[in-house]
Design a protein that fits this description.
Order of helices and strands: EEEHHEEHHHHHH
Number of strands: 5
Shape: elongated
Structural class: alpha+beta
Length: 183
Amino acid sequence: MGAQSQVVRFQNHHLQVVEIDGKKGFTSETIGYALEYAEPRRQVVRQFNRNKEEFESGVDYSVVNLTTDAGERETTVFFQTGVMLIGMFSKQPLAKDFRQWAKHVLASVQSGDWRTLAFQQIAPEKHKALKKAYRLRSLGVSLMDASRAAGIHEREVSLFFQLFGDPQPDEVEYKEFPVSEAN
């Protein structure tokens, strides 16, 4: 059973997405790490075992042999609905945020929607600034002025536009935009 993976970010945690037979999900240890359990793998497995009747094998989870830091071992991989169920059963403070994040990220990863996934990987505190810069560019403001007005480095805005497309067509003349030095 072949396994491939990629890494996504939830808050300050980098989490490995595992692909098993075309389905993408997280190992029990990865979920526990994201939820900041003291014993990540053990505590998620405990929740799973307590509520096993809620999970459907092959749909919500799969038990596979994966090579880990500890060598090859039997590992439970939870797919989108299984991750959501673990998040619902968790009483950890991050559980609600994790469920909401996982719902969108796993759907994006599974569908191959790399643009949505890329945006979700940008630090949340930069979302508002990038959206502002995007909006300003769509009004014809230059890249430099849009970056300054949004309070974000021009290089970050440029990279963002490389992913999502520059909203300003080349043939449109740029408007001058007053930029406050406080931003």
